[in-house]
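Progress against Task 2.4 (sequence-to-structure conversion) is shown through the following example record, which the project officer requested during the mid-term review.
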Amino acid sequence: MTESISPKTARRIALAAQGFGRSRPAAPGRRHAREVARRLGVIQIDSVNVVTRTHYLPAFSRLGDYPREALEAEAWGPRRSLFEYWGHEASLLPLETQPLFRWRMERAQGGAMWTGLSRFGREKRAYIDGVLAEIERRGPVTGADFAPKPEEGGPRGAPGWWSWSDGKRALEWLFWAGLITTKTRNGFERVYDLTERALPARIIDLPTPHEADAQRELVRISARAMGVATAADLRDYFRLPLADARDRIAELVEAGELTPVSVKGWRQPAFLSAGARSPRKVAGVALLSPFDNLIWARDRTERLFDVRVRLEIYTPAHKRAHGYYVLPFLEDEAITARVDLKADRKAGTLLVQAAWREPDATADTAMRLAAELRRMAGWLGLERVEIVGKGDLAGALEAAISS
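Structure tokens generated for the chain above:
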């Protein structure tokens, strides 16, 4: 018979797999940032900078106030351990997993991209090849190098990175196809180079695994990172094709690396990763990026925490329920609050534009949240936290901040 586990046990397994409930290091640095990335397997990148860009936040949630330069060195430094590719979305991934995505790169070269880019690849392949040859000749380039000048019809004063010229589309096509990659970044602008020049030879020289073997390893990584997960969860972590994910999961079940389980209240059967920890309790607090691996799948978040979390960045302001850039607050084993934050860098202030209770909020939630907000402000180089907005937790949080 299929083993049955309680929702509380499933939640503890998931939190432990994601690195929560561990003591934060006294002086976190590059090694710790690298360990977080390897534990998670993938860190999503997003351009929104209203607090700080999201790729910095998963390590903060798990380590506390680590130096952001540590992640930058791991991602874009000369001795880096991460590279950029389409993992979940645009992502940072451990270097050693690069061969696991070569099947996706090969499919991309055959046209398996989003519709517009696939069509561009078919219609403009000679132009794309010319851009690739130019990079090979010239060396590292940015999107601005291929953006049209104003006299050529480009937007006057607009940064080339956001100009979807043919040059930008060609770079995106080549990036998805794995022929170029991010060598470093200037601010948030990618600096591209040929993959074989940008990545270490020890990675380039690794053999390319068979497609099924690579996908199987990606499912293993997903399973370890989530602890317990449905087939949809496992597929979504690296956005695997449906049929491929189904086959790889079945193979890992047969091999004894995934154990089918049922979780009370979950509509779909789940799978327990071999070696997953089931702690007796998970303690600690964390502010979670809306793109954090723990909560990026909204259906999974509801199953784990019985909390409805939605990204409202693209929702018109008057229709937002909780705010623009809302970070849920993880308190031990529950999401007990959420705050809409903004870093006012000129004023040196972390603004709390809204603060909301969740049903599992405790008498200590405001005080514990206040302490974590102060930690975040210091980490961001801001001098203070100020409550300026609405929400049913705003008053208690303002009192806690002031105490």
